[in-house]
């Protein structure tokens, strides 16, 4: 009989997990079923390499950055009525120029390839190394339907490379939800 172990993390660095090399120490009768939950590209610096080395899956949450990667917000500073930015004053902190610029670039790339920004963003994330699945937070049936289209997108190398390039600054930037780490 297989034993399963699980580990959850939200916004922590590898050093804060208290783990080292061979952190998940596998025995022949154990199967590692560990999920690390993260929400931006900063985990690619330490966490993703550790997970790949140890055979650990990652389940990203907040994958559409509260709507920024859906095309809902852009750099004209208009906030759609009823949106998270309209109903939650704390969400305004995420509407920084570099985040909005990425949202615009994703929207343009999605349009060029005949996809919605949401579906393309999720498809890219699903194809990332170590990602097991993605937690989506759709609030409407239409959003869920659109999110599910991500499963039909063929992520070729060129498209993946384009998304990697436009989001690359976020690998070395601050975590998206820095306020949670304060």
Topology:
Layout: E1 3-5, H1 14-17, E2 30-32, E3 35-36, H2 47-54, E4 57-58, H3 84-87, H4 97-112, H5 117-126, H6 141-148, H7 157-167
Parallel strand pairs: 1-2, 3-4
Describe the 3D structure.
The chain has 182 residues and is mainly alpha-helical. The protein has one domain: TIM Barrel (Alpha-Beta Barrel). It contains seven helices and four strands. The strands form two sheets. Strands 1-2 form a two-stranded parallel ribbon. β1, α1 (14-17) and β2 (30-32) form a beta-alpha-beta unit. α4 (97-112) runs antiparallel to α7 (157-167). The longest helix has 16 residues, at 97-112.
Name its key features.
two-stranded parallel ribbon; TIM Barrel; 4 strands; single chain; 182 residues; 34% helix; mainly alpha
Helix fraction?
Answer: 25-40%
- DSSP helical segment count: 7
Task: Classify the secondary structure makeup into a structural class.
Answer: mainly alpha
Name of the CATH superfamily: NADP-dependent oxidoreductase domain
What strand line-up does the widest sheet have?
Answer: 1-2
Give a summary of the structure in a few sentences.
With 182 residues, the protein is mainly alpha-helical.
């Amino acid at each position: 009989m297989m034993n399963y172990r699980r580990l959850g993390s939200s916004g922590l660095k590898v050093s804060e997990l208290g783990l080292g090399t061979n952190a998940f120490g596998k025995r022949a009768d154990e199967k590692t079923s560990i999920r690390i939950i993260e929400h931006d590209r900063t985990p690619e610096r330490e966490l993703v390499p550790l997970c790949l080395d140890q055979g650990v899956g990652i389940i990203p949450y907040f994958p559409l950055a509260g709507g920024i990667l859906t095309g809902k917000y852009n750099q004209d500073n208009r906030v759609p009525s009823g949106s998270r930015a309209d109903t939650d004053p704390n969400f305004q902190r995420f509407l920084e120029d570099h985040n909005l610029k990425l949202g615009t670039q994703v929207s343009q790339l999605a349009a060029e390839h005949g996809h919605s920004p949401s579906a393309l963003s999720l498809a890219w994330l699903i194809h990332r190394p170590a990602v097991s699945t993605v937690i989506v937070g759709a609030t409407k049936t239409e959003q869920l339907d659109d999110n599910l289209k991500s499963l039909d997108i063929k992520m070729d190398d060129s498209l993946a490379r384009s998304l990697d390039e436009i989001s690359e600054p976020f690998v070395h930037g601050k975590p998206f939800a820095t306020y949670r780490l304060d």
